Amino acid sequence: MQDDHPATVRVRGLVVPDLLLDLLREGRWRHPGEPAVARVMPWFQDPLDFLGSIEQMERESRSLDHLTEDDEMAQLFGFARAQPATGPVELPWLDVDRAFFIAMARYAGDDTAIALDYRTSSSDPRVVASDVWNSSAPNTWRTVADTFSEFVAELRLDGADVGGP
Fold first, then answer.
1. Global confidence as pTM
2. Which alpha helices (DSSP H) does the chain contain, by range?
3. Would you say residue 125 lies in a domain?
4. Rg for the chain (alpha carbons), in Å?
5. C-alpha closest to that of 92 among 44, 38, 46, 130
6. Of 75, 87, 162, 164, which is least surrounded by CB within 10 A?
7. What's the domain range around 42?
């Protein structure tokens, strides 16, 4: 039996879930349409582009390191790193060492995104999205789905015929 994923694929040192690799390989990791996104993330108002390759995810996620070098920018975007003195980073902050982007705002300057958040699981990470619409802070992060596989199912990218609106 031949392994479909002969080498472990990583973005920012984090193992990319097999489901995401399968969706990318099969051409099913693509924007499902605004109604589907609105159903899963009703607060999210910016048009999104789903990042269509591991290379795009890696490239777009490099900004996590750059933006955390400046404390003011890190505060603005809701980015943080765990520190021995302060302990782990929790939501509404994005731990930049435990996440990478899978979708980005379509228009430059909107500065919103969806990320895989590995604080909950290394094999089926939580999905979080930025929220600039419902908080007094400039940008917070909130859970979209408890797992990536749940997110895929909710967006109906898995090919399953799910009833409902």
1. 0.91
2. 18-25, 34-40, 54-61, 63-68, 71-77, 148-155
3. yes
4. 16
5. 130
6. 164
7. 17-155
